[in-house]
Amino acid sequence: MKKADVNKAPKIWDRSRQFTHKLYWSVKYYGLDLTILAFMIKILSFLSKDLAPTDWYKRTTSRRFDKRFGVDTAGCITTEQLDISNHQKQQAIQYQPTASVTFRLMLSELPINYSDYVFVDYGSGKGRALILAAHFPFKRIVGVDVSNKLHQIAHDNIRRFLAQRVKCRNILSVCEDATTFDLPNEPLVIYLFHPFKQEVLTAVLNNIGRSLEHRFRHIIILYRHPQHPEIKNLLFEAEFLRKADDRN
Description:
Layout: H1 2-30, H2 32-47, H3 54-69, H4 86-91, H5 100-108, E1 118-122, H6 128-133, E2 140-145, H7 148-161, E3 171-175, E4 188-193, H8 198-214, E5 219-224, H9 229-237
Parallel strand pairs: 1-2, 1-4, 2-3, 4-5
């Protein structure tokens, strides 16, 4: 019995710590009112998913985040609205902003010295992940997007955001093809929020593999929402990758 209690203690502590952090950053990003509303929606979702206005809440918190930081990252943009080729549209996924609190918690769990790492966001869109990553003392932050329209919005967002106090001020958005992007030679944290389909992801992973062959260093890949089995297979079967966590 004592052994079981000891084993459970770290898990309980981790969950309590994560809950505290989630509560803090929810209030900071969205305000106390929407944080309280989130708990009410969570309760409703247990009773019935139809009762919980989750889509409305996501839109509302996304707009609140933008208002808080004076930026424009909310809303979805379909591939048809982007200034990219037809083939690129077929391989791209529509833009939608990353979930702020979830992203913040994900980065905070990394067992690294942030100042040694460059953060790279593939399919960075309007730049929300770049803004959020700036709350950590990364060596520098780079966003890569093939759409010049989204790149220009991200560039403006970065300029406005840097008027505030942040831990990393070296933030850059580039308009480039992710499959041929020349990765920095430093240790990397690479973030992908389901930005493109299998063909492009394969090319991106091959590009990362070639970069590792050229200069071996520690690379962490964070992939949010690998919705299709073929995407998971690509990630887990890449020879140079080692799966660190079974969570999606």
